[in-house]
Design goal:
By secondary structure, the chain is mainly β. The protein is built from 1 helix and 16 strands. The longest helix has 14 residues.
Amino acid sequence: LAACSSTSVIETKADYKAKLDGQTNRISLIGGCNNIMASAHITKLALVVEPETSAMTRKACVSEAMALDEKMTKFLESKPNILSEGDKYFLINVNNDNYKNIRVPITFSNVKGFKNDPENTAVTKLIYVSHQLKVCNAGSDQLCLQIRENKKGAWKIYHGTIEGYIHDPKIDARLRVLEYTIENPPADKSSKRWVLDMTIEQSVVGK
């Protein structure tokens, strides 16, 4: 397993949950002491993980927690079946005695044939971001990004944030962002969440 390390010993109560991203073909498993991830796809209602891609964060967990994380990695690699119960899905493997008592909830993002979790399903958007910030609202000192979807379009004030993007006052940028829909957002919050997927191009202002 690929690994990164930490120093303080961590105790944990495992409550594993899996998510498969159809855009990247990556499975992630959280809820144990470590996060586990690997390349994966679905074949005939079974999850197929490429063992050589399995990776785990290496926090300094107690030995029992580390052993459980390693067992769960092997469970993912055992080609577990996907069980559907109503609108929920679970990973199970009743054909292997080592894993017959394991049942892991799984959600899907951009996976055809499965009910996708709206908050994990993204729409790809291409936007331009100006080097210049503007006051968000009249009478406010808060500054907002300026964006546009067309290179020749007018700049519009964007009141949200782009997760993963760091604004540079000297650079105009074209970004590819992932737009997620948030169900039942707070009244003062947007129903859309933007996450930086890729910086496509950058240009230094004045050059």
